[in-house]
Each structure stands twice: as structure tokens, then as C-alpha cells.
Design brief:
With 266 residues, this protein is mainly alpha-helical. The chain is built from twelve helices and four strands, in the order H-H-H-H-H-H-H-H-E-E-H-E-E-H-H-H.
């Protein structure tokens, strides 16, 4: 009997999550708006909708009130079409907030400046080759997104054998090399082939805000001394990389499920 109860509770959480998402989308409500109505953080709404967080009794009451339903109707899918929420709406903004930045907003110029910053700060270290740079950029982007729920660079990272790889990296470095902004140097590090990039110009701090530089510096201070192998292994234990499919983009939203070892959100 106890096992049956546990299974039922799990199913209820999942069904409720789908129901919340259905109600929200049917009424053009974004997660941020619903989170404010429930008095919880937006990531908590994501967890509710995925059935990975139990709704408290007070949250269930708030959900029913928000969607103008009684408690029975809250779980009744046939009632969805009868819901009518009266609220001020700005469709364009709501659509923008709904999409938000889970789809990376590519910013090649920001990637170029971030690369120049990394190369000027730690590029002279013998371990800083292309593989290490890929991982530093990944943790800069994903740490910033977890902490501020906004994009910093906004590159697209693919899951591959050696860890997260930014798709836009090659195009950006090829363009920078052609313009004489960086120089590619091929060498060996512990008898392994290494591609290093030497900065021929400095970075432009006007492209960064203070809190962006703070996140970048934190990543460089903690991770820039690791070898390519160590940093690749380290990235393989991060939840966004674990949950991604091989050869597919890594979802920024996965940072909200990170373990304490990786989480930067207080």
C-alpha cells in the first residue's frame, strides 16, 4: 500500500505540473507572472511544471485563485477552455519573456571581447589552449545565466566527447585572425598537440558591465590553472552537460538543477 501511495504522489506531481503549464499557456501567462502570483521564484515554477517540485497547500490555493478555479477544477482538464483571466497584457513583451533567453542570443562581438579578456588575463599560462578556453567560456556563460537569469555571451554550446564546445568559436577566431587581432600558435603541452591563441590587441571594457567582469574573473581564478583533461572531466559532472544529448546544444535552463559543487546561485 505504501508503494502505491508513493507512486500515486509522483504521478500527481507530474500531472499537476502539466496542468499548470497548460493553464498558463492557454491564458498567455509567462512563468515570471505566475511566479509573482504564487510568491515564489521563477525557477520554482519551472520545477512545478516538470513535476519535480511539490506544490504546497497554500500554493495550490493560490493557483486555483489565479486561474479562477475551485480545487476540483484545478485538476480537471475539461475546465481549461472556460478560464478567463482579467489582467493587463502586453502581448509583445509577454512573448519575449516567455521565450526569454533559453534560446541563446548569439553575440559574436561579446564573444570576441570575452576571448580577448581571457587571453590577455591568462592566455600566457602554458595550459591555456583551445580546449581549456572552450570550457572557460562555457562556465562563464552558464554561471552568469544561473546567477542572473540573463545572457552574458550567449553562445551555443554543443555536448561532445571533450566537454562543452561553443559553436560560434571557430567563426569568431578565424575572423579575428584575419583582422590581425589574434595569432594562432600550434604547439605541444605534455606531448599533446595544443592550439594557443596570442592576443595582438587588448580587450575593450566598455563591452562589459561590472557584474559580468566579476563572473568572468571568478571563473578564471578558480579554473584557469586546470589542464584540458581536468577541465573536461570537471565539465562532464555539471548537470547541463549531463542532461544534454550527445552532439546537441546544451540547455541553459539546466543550470537551475545544478548540484551544490557547481551552483553559483545563493
Amino acid at each position: 500500500m505504501n508503494y502505491g501511495i508513493v507512486e500515486m504522489n509522483v504521478n500527481i506531481d507530474v500531472l499537476l505540473g502539466k496542468r499548470i503549464q497548460l493553464l498558463r499557456k492557454a491564458n498567455g501567462v509567462n512563468q515570471e507572472t505566475l511566479a509573482k502570483a504564487l510568491g515564489i521564484a521563477r525557477p520554482a515554477v519551472t520545477l512545478l511544471e516538470k513535476g519535480k517540485r511539490k506544490a504546497t497547500p497554500s500554493e495550490l490555493v493560490s493557483l486555483a485563485n489565479f486561474f479562477q478555479l475551485n480545487m476540483e477544477e484545478l485538476f480537471d482538464e475539461s475546465k481549461t477552455h472556460q478560464i478567463s483571466i482579467q489582467k493587463e497584457r502586453r502581448p509583445e513583451k509577454s512573448k519575449e519573456e516567455e521565450i526569454r533567453t533559453s534560446v541563446p542570443q548569439k553575440n559574436h562581438d561579446k564573444l570576441k571581447q570575452a576571448l580577448l579578456y581571457i587571453l590577455n588575463k591568462v592566455g600566457s599560462k602554458p595550459n591555456i589552449g583551445e580546449t581549456v578556453i572552450h570550457k572557460l567560456l562555457y562556465f562563464i556563460d552558464f554561471n552568469f545565466y544561473e546567477k542572473y537569469e540573463e545572457q552574458l555571451i550567449g553562445a551555443t554550446y554543443i555536448k561532445n566527447k571533450f566537454g562543452p564546445t561553443p559553436v560560434e568559436f571557430k567563426k569568431v577566431v578565424d575572423d579575428m585572425a584575419r583582422k590581425g587581432e589574434i595569432e594562432l600558435v600550434k604547439s605541444n603541452y605534455f606531448q599533446y598537440p595544443q592550439r594557443k591563441y596570442l592576443p595582438l590587441i587588448s580587450f575593450d571594457l566598455r563591452h562589459f558591465k561590472a557584474h559580468e567582469i566579476e563572473v568572468i574573473n571568478d571563473v578564471l581564478n578558480r579554473l584557469s590553472d586546470k589542464t584540458a583533461a581536468d577541465l573536461s572531466e570537471y565539465s562532464h559532472r555539471d548537470v547541463p552537460w549531463i542532461t544534454a544529448e550527445k552532439g546537441k546544444p546544451i540547455d541553459y535552463e539546466a543550470v537551475f538543477y545544478r548540484t551544490p559543487e557547481y551552483s553559483v546561485r545563493k
